[in-house]
Design a protein that fits this description.
The complex is a heterodimer of chains A (about 250) and B (about 300). By secondary structure, chain A is of the alpha/beta class. Chain A folds into 2 domains: about 30-70 and about 140-205 and about 215-250, P-loop containing nucleotide triphosphate hydrolases (Rossmann fold); about 80-140. Helices cover about 35% and strands about 25% of the residues of chain A. Chain A has a 6-stranded mixed sheet with strand order 5-6-7-3-8-9, with helices on both faces. A 3-stranded antiparallel sheet of chain A has the order 2-1-4, covered by helices on one side. With about 300 residues, chain B is mostly helical. Chain B has 2 domains: about 1-70, no CATH class; about 85-295, MetI-like (MetI-like fold), CATH 1.10.3720.10. Helices cover about 80% and strands about 0% of the residues of chain B. Chain B is flat, with a radius of gyration of 29 Å. Classes of the chains: A alpha/beta (about 250), B mainly alpha (about 300). Chains A and B meet through helix 4 and helix 5 of A and helix 2, helix 8 and helix 9 of B.
Chain lengths: ~250, ~300
């Protein structure tokens, strides 16, 4: 069974003089689905990049733990980052040797059977993200990091991708951190929603209701309002800080 | 699609809300349908494309064939004196005479051989240097400035020096061609590697590719298009250089044909040699385009979307 615990202790990260994360404390249980929302520039993507090992923290420690072996971590970006010169199948097999059958099975699971030998150029945006998802899943990652993977998709495709992700994770649970701008997406999919603002966790919300959840559920609607209010407040806070620093708020 | 949209709006208005799956069941289906539409479009276009393929094959020949016809007409009617420009038919006669004596084939083969060897040495050196400089910062710091300086010297200015150093044998010609082809390939290889999307390199690293695999699977394919542009350009330079190289005391080759014809006042042979250069240039270009189509078939600007 896949899934690893994630523990961050007072993690700080700055780029030049811009402090992105400041003393962040976070503990995620194995196979928990955590969504991270927050205003632009709040450090959401940096958090994922730290977990993926693409950045190193200035201070603090990051621990990914499972008992039997070193956990496998895979990240999926907002851009699909498919290699245009490789067929769909060979894109999934990036960094993997001789598992063509597994790759075919995963492509079937994401609904791309029959497209294995095509180049990515012939695929739509949603299909390209399906390939990127398959490329991450073939490693059976213990921690799956999703950096706004559906942000660039149209509403219908995004809804289909959310459903697909929910189904794939229900079949094989793993620890997931999803960065998203879409509060509804966070509420539909996750066990827990974090609102990050100013480099810290401003809200930590545990959702107990069973999945699949329904878009129009009045409880979710109330939570959505609450989180949106929180987002707006921190967005105002950020721009106020930016103004007081004499910078342009973008 | 419109059905799905109206479904969605119905779902939005309905109280109590429709379960997510029911809402998406229709959508998922619609997405599959719309996802297949690019294929349908391809099939739809493939028929007219076949017509266009014939046109694309014939149309480029219309102008040269027409020009030759007009040229022959002007010569035959005496409007243009054959003492200034020989008629196409005379050039054809000169060609068949030379061919009968075996000179034509010999000279063409000698020139082709010189271009191939010179280009082979120059392009492979340029590719190698470009790879090393593009991939290793140390090599860049060590070599790039010097290479860029040497690059700005017009290589044909080295002709006298080459003759002094290597005499009038094959070497100066081959070295000149190699020097002419080295830099276009070098510059484009370095530029191609520099312009590889860093996001793809990051992807390769986060998917556990080692250095060698990263170069082979990501950097080289990403830089391939500019490298091929460099190779195509270098082939042109190779022929240009050979024209000059073969005028230095040669005993054979197309350049010698021109030199010799000038001394014998055979304008027909001179024009024939120019046409031979044109044909050689076209052939080189054709071969590199074939190579591009094969290697860049994944690229939206080159043919074919289906992989292997």
């Amino acid at each position: 069974m896949s899934g690893a615990e994630v523990k961050l202790r007072s993690v700080s990260k700055a780029f030049g003089r811009r402090v992105v994360l400041e003393g962040l404390e976070l503990s995620v249980k194995a196979r928990q689905f955590v969504s991270v929302i927050g205003p632009s520039g709040a450090g959401k993507s940096t958090l994922l990049r730290l977990l993926a090992g693409l950045e190193t923290p200035d201070r603090g420690s990051i621990e990914l733990r499972r008992t039997d072996r070193t956990p496998d971590v895979r990240i999926m970006f907002q851009e699909d980052r498919l290699l245009p010169w490789r067929s769909v199948l060979r894109n999934v097999l990036l960094g993997v040797k001789g598992r063509a059958q597994d790759a075919r099975a995963i492509l079937r699971a994401v609904g791309l059977q029959g497209r294995e030998d095509e180049f990515p150029i012939g695929l739509s945006g949603g299909q390209r993200q399906r390939v990127a998802l398959a490329r991450a899943l073939i490693h059976e990652p213990d921690v799956l990091l999703l950096d706004e993977p559906f942000g660039a998709l149209d509403a219908i495709t995004r809804a289909a991708m959310q459903l697909l992700l929910g189904q794939l994770l229900a079949a094989r649970p793993r620890t997931v951190l999803l960065v998203t701008h879409d509060v509804e997406e966070a509420l539909l999919l996750s066990d827990r929603v974090l609102l990050i603002s100013d480099g810290r966790i401003a809200r930590d919300l545990v959702l107990a209701s069973p999945r699949p959840r329904h878009r129009g559920d009045p409880k979710l609607a109330a939570l959505k309002e609450e989180l949106l209010d929180g987002l707006l407040a921190s967005e105002r806070g950020l721009s106020a800080v930016a103004r007081s620093n004499g910078r342009m708020s973008t | 699609m419109s059905d799905v949209l109206s479904n969605a709006s119905v779902a939005d208005k309905t109280e109590p809300p429709v379960p997510l799956e029911a809402f998406l069941a229709a959508d998922a289906f619609a997405v599959v349908a719309s996802d297949q539409s690019p294929l349908n479009v391809d099939v739809g276009i493939s028929l007219p494309v076949r017509g266009i393929a014939w046109r694309a094959l014939l149309l480029p020949w219309l102008l040269p064939v027409g020009l030759i016809a007009v040229w022959q007409g002007l010569s035959s009617s005496g409007i243009v004196s054959t003492a200034i420009v020989p008629a196409p038919i005379e050039i054809w006669r000169a060609a068949s005479q030379l061919a009968q004596r075996g000179e034509l084939k010999h000279d063409i083969l000698v020139s082709l051989r010189r271009v191939s060897i010179g280009f082979g040495i120059g392009a492979s050196t340029g590719l190698l240097l470009g790879l090393v400089v593009g991939l290793f910062v140390l090599a860049q710091e060590l070599l790039d400035r010097t290479l860029q300086m040497v690059r700005t010297i017009p290589h044909l200015a080295l002709v006298p020096l080459m003759i002094l150093w290597f005499g009038i044998g094959e070497e100066p010609r081959l070295i000149l061609v190699a020097m002419g082809t080295l830099f276009p390939v070098y510059v484009n290889t370095v530029g191609g590697i520099r312009n590889v999307d860093p996001k793809l390199i990051e992807l390769g690293q986060s998917y556990g590719l080692g250095r060698l695999a990263l170069v082979w699977s990501i950097i080289l394919p990403a830089a391939l298009q500019p490298i091929l542009v460099g190779i195509r350009y270098a082939l042109g330079v190779a022929w240009l250089t050979l024209v000059v190289g073969e005028t230095i005391a040669s005993r054979d080759g197309v350049g010698y044909l021109v030199q010799n014809a000038r001394e014998l006042l055979r304008i027909d042979v001179i024009v024939l040699a120019i046409l031979l250069y044109a044909a050689a240039g076209w052939l080189s270009d054709f071969l590199t385009r074939l190579l591009e189509q094969r290697l860049l078939r994944w690229h939206p600007n080159y043919a074919g979307h289906r992989g292997t």
